[in-house]
């Protein structure tokens, strides 16, 4: 689920689009479940995912990128400048 890589952390994420409320919603099948308001059209869901992760971790949106799975519900998100411990303390469900 979490892995330390050079310069940051990678997080396995599963997204649920068109949700009533956006935010971190726990775990599903070993991945961090993130609910998004946006539909999976023209990158809207990916942009909202970056914003939700950045806000939850207290980092800038520039520090968050999608490393794999841009067209999939299951994604690998790269967060620069944070440690695994920081992620686990700010996202308790990720630990």
Description:
- The chain has helices at residues 44-57, 84-90; strands spanning 2-5, 8-16, 23-28, 31-35, 64-68, 74-80.
- 22% of the residues lie in helices and 38% in strands.
- It starts with a strand and ends in a 5-residue tail after the last helix.
- Strands 1, 2, 3, 4, 5 and 6 form a 6-stranded mixed beta sheet that branches.
- The protein has one domain (2-81): Conserved Hypothetical Protein Mth637, Chain: A.
- With 95 residues, the protein is α+β, with helices and mostly antiparallel strands.
Mean pLDDT: 92
Strand content is: 35-45%
Number of strands: 6
- Quaternary organization: single chain
Number of domains: 1
Q: How would a textbook summarize the main sheet? A: 6 strands, mixed
Mind telling me the C-alpha Rg?
12 Å
Low-pLDDT stretches are: none
Look at the helices and sheets and give the structural class.
Answer: alpha+beta
What is the overall silhouette? globular
CATH topology-level name: Conserved Hypothetical Protein Mth637, Chain: A
What is the helical fraction, as a range of percent?
10-25%
CATH top level class name: Alpha Beta
CATH architecture: 2-Layer Sandwich
User: Secondary-structure element sequence?
Assistant: EEEEHEEH
Instruction: Compute the separation of the termini in Å.
Output: 8 Å
> What is the number of helices?
2
Specify the CATH homologous superfamily: YggU-like
């Amino acid at each position: 689920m979490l892995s330390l890589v050079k310069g940051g952390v990678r997080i396995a994420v599963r997204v649920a689009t068109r949700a009533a409320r956006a935010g971190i919603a726990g775990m599903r099948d070993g991945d961090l479940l993130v609910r998004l308001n946006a539909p999976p059209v023209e990158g809207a869901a990916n942009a909202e995912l970056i914003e939700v992760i950045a806000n939850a971790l207290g980092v800038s949106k520039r520090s968050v990128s999608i490393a794999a799975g841009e067209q999939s519900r299951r994604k690998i998100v790269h967060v620069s400048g944070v440690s695994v411990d920081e992620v686990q303390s700010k996202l308790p469900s990720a630990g």
